[in-house]
Amino acid sequence: GHVWKEYITFTEGTDGHLNMVAVDMVNDIQTAYYDNTIRRYVLKHPCMEELARVEDPDSWARKATEFLLRKEQHNKGVIGRLKKETNHSSGVFVYQQMHGCELNDDETTTVFWKTSFQGEDFSSFDKDKELFTPAAGKAQIRSKVCRVTKAWINYISEDWKQECIEGLKKHLLYGKETLERKVAPEVRVYDRPDSERNLIMLTCMATGFYPRAVDMTWVRDGKTKMDNAHTDGILPNEDETHQIRKTIEIDPEDKRNYTCWVDHSSLEKQLSITWAPSPGVKSGITVPVVVVILVLILVLLITGFVIWRKKKPGVKKSDYTPAQRREAEDSSSNTSSN
């Protein structure tokens, strides 16, 4: 499927001035930008420039700008009431909104709308019940701050949803080469010894893939899925592709097989990469341990050699000390003068 999202952040400082920034994304690719200092909707991707050129750039940008200006005016009141109800009297206040729509592969559609303040969830649109649901513990505040009418709910679930999906389809039409492309991941598996904890870290890395959705799983002996893998999730690359890493920890004495499975829409079949221990990790002994053992052996050999030299029979220290060169010259001079 494909998704259009708009992230809006309102920040009110101690001076009472409200800053507003909006970022539009299609499938995690930024397409447009707006902030209330320039009060202008700025296209940020070639596909958007083509869309605007064909669809009338002035009309497209004007509609987006007008919508965001209305959001700014409406949310000034929301933020004021939120600050009052939460007794916020000093410092920066942050209110955020994320809304958008999704066009699934089977042509079904979904709309979503979420808000938060000061980093905490505030309310969200329940697409099944077609209701705005307050976050846990926020029902009383929500009822005082935002009065949600039936007309507003109908607008979000019907008219706005239709507008959103139509806009997303236009993005896909003019940005097909970028937004609907499929790029296969490059996958590799590597290991790293953790000598402090006497463990081996196994990492599976997939990078350079598009679209974003991917499935990566570590499997032991071809059947047991490892659910304890550490990951930072799917991250963006600079070229608008994505990457993901998953790492598991195993005992150096573990002789079982470990395989990384990767599935992506660009692949005809699932990739399967089995870990092969690197030269530094084998026989259950990691490189740092081998180095320590070699150093100890070398020290023992040197110590043994020194002790053997001291105890070897027939090797005695001579009591004769050669006369200094100066003394010998003086003696020779005296003898010749006599």
UniProtKB/TrEMBL annotation:
Q: Name the domain of life this protein comes from.
A: Eukaryota
List, alphabetically, the GO terms of the cellular component aspect.
external side of plasma membrane; extracellular space
Q: Tell me the segments the record calls region Disordered.
A: 314-338
Q: Which residues cross the membrane?
A: 285-308
Q: Which UniProt key words apply to this protein?
A: Glycoprotein, Membrane, Transmembrane, Transmembrane helix
- SUPFAM superfamilies, per the entry: Immunoglobulin (SSF48726), MHC antigen-recognition domain (SSF54452)
Provide a GO biological process annotation.
Answer: immune response
Does the record bear Transmembrane helix in its keywords? yes
Q: Does the keyword Glycoprotein apply?
A: yes
User: In what ranges is there compositional bias, type Basic and acidic residues?
Assistant: 316-329
Ranges for the Ig-like domain? 185-272
Database matches in PANTHER family: MHC CLASS I-RELATED (PTHR16675), SHKT DOMAIN-CONTAINING PROTEIN (PTHR16675:SF235)
Under what name is this protein listed?
Ig-like domain-containing protein
The species is Latimeria chalumnae (Coelacanth)
